[in-house]
Amino acid sequence: MPSSSKARKPDISLSNCGYSKVLDIISNKWTALVIYAMENGKIRYGEVLRRVEGISKKMLTQTVRKLERDGLVQRHITPTVPPSVEYSLTPLGETLLQPMKELRQWGRVNYDQVVESRASYDSAYATDSRGADSMNEI
Amino acid sequence: MPSSSKARKPDISLSNCGYSKVLDIISNKWTALVIYAMENGKIRYGEVLRRVEGISKKMLTQTVRKLERDGLVQRHITPTVPPSVEYSLTPLGETLLQPMKELRQWGRVNYDQVVESRASYDSAYATDSRGADSMNEI
DNA sequence: CGGAATCCTCTCTGATACTG
DNA sequence: CAGTATCAGAGAGGATTCCG
């Protein structure tokens, strides 16, 4: 066996990392919010549009299509007039809900610390190129 | 409380969602991989560069700076010649490691199903010969 | 060794308007 | 109601070069 003290080859890569694969699925701006809108069962397109603040029809459609393609969401079409389309999580989609909730929980608990850290970092590395001591804004 | 049968106001928004906040931190392409490089303790800049396959110096610096600003990573400078810089997770960063691992685990277990789903979706909706999709694996 | 600065491309996202 | 189509802007990411 090589007992060389160095010689380490790359062992962390995008293609072998499960986390990166998940990011490929849920790192979009709206994906998580849309999934949350479905966590209590079937919900109509327009209802999601109303419940998820700020999302546009274009982005909702795009998000929901991708989730459907990935097998996380199902589409139920009722060909009435006007048409009614409902969405719900697939069993696979439900399994994703759990780890997502844990990450969400982390955010709820710790995000304030992150915000604080950013503030102190920014004041330490004072982007302020001239005011050497205090903040002489305006 | 209003017992009206409808009238639901948006209750899912980017600003109140802990998950979206976390995405703000770790949804970048390299962030997770860089964090994984540090999960066993202090590691030098160049060592991260070698271990994380495909990352450039620019992206590593950018990623690590953001993590430092967010309070998830610490920088240890040893002013030798040439300089030596080591990085490690902060206690806050370590707490993030856990939920990330669960998501990574989900990816390891379920990503194949997602890939399958994509394939069947694409063949079902086969828009002429437009397979100009994303090829991830090699 | 560990960056910073520059340039450039490509994807994501948003606004707007039209349709079955 | 549930989309589609089109255009435009912002920013993430990459390649290259230079520096203490």
UniProtKB/TrEMBL annotation, chains A, B:
<feature type="domain" description="HTH hxlR-type">
    <location>
        <begin position="17"/>
        <end position="115"/>
    </location>
</feature>
<keyword id="KW-0804">Transcription</keyword>
<keyword id="KW-0238">DNA-binding</keyword>
<dbReference type="GO" id="GO:0003677">
    <property type="term" value="F:DNA binding"/>
</dbReference>
<dbReference type="Pfam" id="PF01638">
    <property type="entry name" value="HxlR"/>
</dbReference>
<protein>
    <submittedName>
        <fullName>Transcriptional regulator</fullName>
    </submittedName>
</protein>
<dbReference type="InterPro" id="IPR036390">
    <property type="entry name" value="WH_DNA-bd_sf"/>
</dbReference>
<keyword id="KW-0805">Transcription regulation</keyword>
<dbReference type="InterPro" id="IPR036388">
    <property type="entry name" value="WH-like_DNA-bd_sf"/>
</dbReference>
<dbReference type="InterPro" id="IPR002577">
    <property type="entry name" value="HTH_HxlR"/>
</dbReference>
